[in-house]
Amino acid sequence: MSAGAAHAEVPPLPVIDPATTSELIVAFLRSQMGQTGFTHVVVGLSGGVDSATVAFLGARAVGADNLLAVRMPYRSSSPASETDALRVVEALGCQTARVEITPMVDPLLALMGASDDPAHQVRRGNVMARQRMIVLYDKSVEFDGLVVGTSNKTEALLGYGTQYGDMAAALMPIGDLYKTQLRAVAEHLGVPAEIVAKPPSADLWPGQTDEGELGRTYADLDRTLFALVDRRWSVERCVAAGLERDLVEWVAARVARMEYKRQTPPVAKISLRTPGIDHLYPRRRPGSRRA
Amino acid sequence: MELRIALGQVAPHLGDLDANLDLVKSRLGEAVAQGADLAVFPELALTGYLLQDLVPDVAIRADDERLLAIGADAPEVMVAVGFVEETRARRYCNSVALLRGGRLIGLHRKVYLPTYGLFDEGRFTRGGHQIRATEVGDPLHKVGLSVCEDFWHPFLPMLQVQAGALLLINVAAGPARAPGSAAGLAAIGGWHKMQETYALLGTVAVAFCNRVGNEEGLTFWGGSRLLGADSSVLAEAPLYEEALVVGVLETDDLRMQRYNLPLVGDERLELVRREVDRIIAERAGMTPPPELGADDAEMPNPAMPPSRESEREVEREVERA
């Protein structure tokens, strides 16, 4: 606290060097592939900036021939999304597959009684995300590749994703990058400009945008998360620095409420040695690599 | 006299002792072929870093013949290499061995085990109790061995300099993070400043060997460096990639630097000791604090007596091997 406290520092956006970051992620992917014994990767390509960035990183790490980009539209998906997904495939020259999820999702929703009523929007979105997960994991067997996730840090902290749906993956290359950081990495990697520039959307229903659904801009969300999480600022300090109290309190509460989505479920401790509690091993170790 | 110092920036295989022994020996062969007098390999080069409960599976004794065999066929070369040590008292330590001609001539157990942030070392390994300089003979006289985090505690390298070290050898497993600017990773800037400061203030050469490769979510950044006693960079390895770089240290330069800048010889150790004793006494509540609210003074915490047993143990390991 000082006499100059009236001129409080506004929380900055988290700036990174995209070249160094890309280099680090490519090294991570290559090494993890080597340690698991896989040479191919599978990515669900939506046409958005996150999955496009992961596809570009994957192609750099293992080569475009070893990358399968799977497009999985639903009947309500925007045609522009698929156009953008194809732009990525064309730019990379990677392998691609198209599996429309409508014939799987619609009968399931009808059976479950979660049809077009707006009250069921979240259920429908979750079913779509989980159906895509099923397709990706099946493709991973067919293509003999690891499923690489496309969740980013903003989504993970806000719990803006479906458990066992879009959050399911073997590796998370962009899971420590905020959405606003990701755009810089995407530009650096040469992701088509149209994709980097368009409003982010989960494209689960027509006209949906992330910022519309969350009710906040990514710039505000990332600035707030960066201050609260990375800098460990208190809510009061964020507010004093000029962030809106509603925003900061909403973000802080959501980060806490969504903790369960970021962790493996707690195991009831009974024995002397329990996986995840005091039976602690790295995932990759002698014997863990497939033959 | 010119000393050729090789930095073997390897990517160890996590939990695979045999594979890593082969890896280190193979890189050492290259260093020998390039005329190295000393070859340095990273922290836990024989085991990998994120071991967790693999620690007892990969731990070896300091007199283990597999360790002593490293460089045994090139007796003119010294080798520093990191491993998990199981002591006679069955403590598991993150140690660095200094080997020559099939003998253990020096051993340092990592004193400061980072257990904060992304680090969890204190859960799986125990800290060493000694800060010494190892006698290696002319022209280096003595070297100071340390492991990664040890270097973030300036008393440690400065004590080794006072104990006679002309070269500080730090072996590391530094994970990359915070790529905050065009200059690269935030952590690298800290390491560079530290190495240069120790070289300058200790008028001592610094050999820093950091590993590369990836374990779980961590990617190790490499960037191993050899610095002269004027803090000039004599050799530098690339980021992220495996490499063997060899730098030449001219010990005559070191001699003149110590004459021109006699900081080490001018140190007032008796004064340092008196002030350190005073701080310890105040913290332990053995003397009244100078003022209310002084740092840590309100927390009586009787200092543990030093473990003579473990100090003798290291001496015995070195003699025995």
Query: How many discrete domains of chain A?
Result: 2
Give the overall shape of chain B, derived from the CA principal axes.
Answer: globular
- Percent in helix of chain A: 40-55%
CATH superfamily of the largest domain in chain A: HUPs
CATH names the topology of the largest domain in chain B as Nitrilase/N-carbamoyl-D-aminoacid amidohydrolase
N-C termini distance of chain A: 60 Å
CATH architecture of the largest domain in chain A: 3-Layer(aba) Sandwich
- Helix tally of chain B? 10
Description of the molecule:
The complex is a heterodimer of chains A (291) and B (321). By secondary structure, chain A is mainly α. Chain A folds into two domains: 14-206, HUPs (Rossmann fold, 3-Layer(aba) Sandwich); 216-265. Chain A has twelve helices and four strands; from the N terminus they run αβαβαβααβααααααα. A four-stranded parallel beta sheet of chain A has the order 3-2-1-4, sandwiched between helices. In chain A, helix 2 links the parallel strand 1 (40-44) and strand 2. In chain A, helix 4 crosses helix 5 (121-143). Chain A is globular and about 55 Å long. With 321 residues, chain B is of the alpha/beta class. Chain B folds into two domains: 2-265, 4-Layer Sandwich (Nitrilase/N-carbamoyl-D-aminoacid amidohydrolase); 268-321, no CATH class. Chain B has ten helices and 14 strands. Chain B has helices at residues 17-33, 55-58, 65-68, 121-124, 155-162, 186-202, 251-260, 263-266, 269-283, 308-320; strands at 2-9, 38-40, 78-86, 92-100, 103-109, 134-137, 141-147, 165-172, 205-210, 212-215, 218-221, 225-227, 233-236, 243-250. In chain B, helix 5 (155-162) links the parallel strand 7 and strand 8.
Question: Would you spell out the secondary-structure blueprint of this structure?
Answer:
The complex is a heterodimer of chains A (291) and B (321).
Chain A: H1 18-36, E1 40-44, H2 49-62, E2 67-71, H3 79-92, E3 95-98, H4 102-112, H5 121-143, E4 145-147, H6 153-158, H7 179-189, H8 193-197, H9 210-214, H10 218-230, H11 235-240, H12 245-257
Parallel strand pairs in A: 1-2, 1-4, 2-3
Helix pairs in contact in A: 1-2, 1-7, 2-7, 4-5, 10-12
Chain B: E1 2-9, H1 17-33, E2 38-40, H2 55-58, H3 65-68, E3 78-86, E4 92-100, E5 103-109, H4 121-124, E6 134-137, E7 141-147, H5 155-162, E8 165-172, H6 186-202, E9 205-210, E10 212-215, E11 218-221, E12 225-227, E13 233-236, E14 243-250, H7 251-260, H8 263-266, H9 269-283, H10 308-320
Parallel strand pairs in B: 1-2, 2-3, 7-8, 8-9
Antiparallel strand pairs in B: 1-14, 3-4, 4-5, 6-7, 9-12, 10-11, 12-13
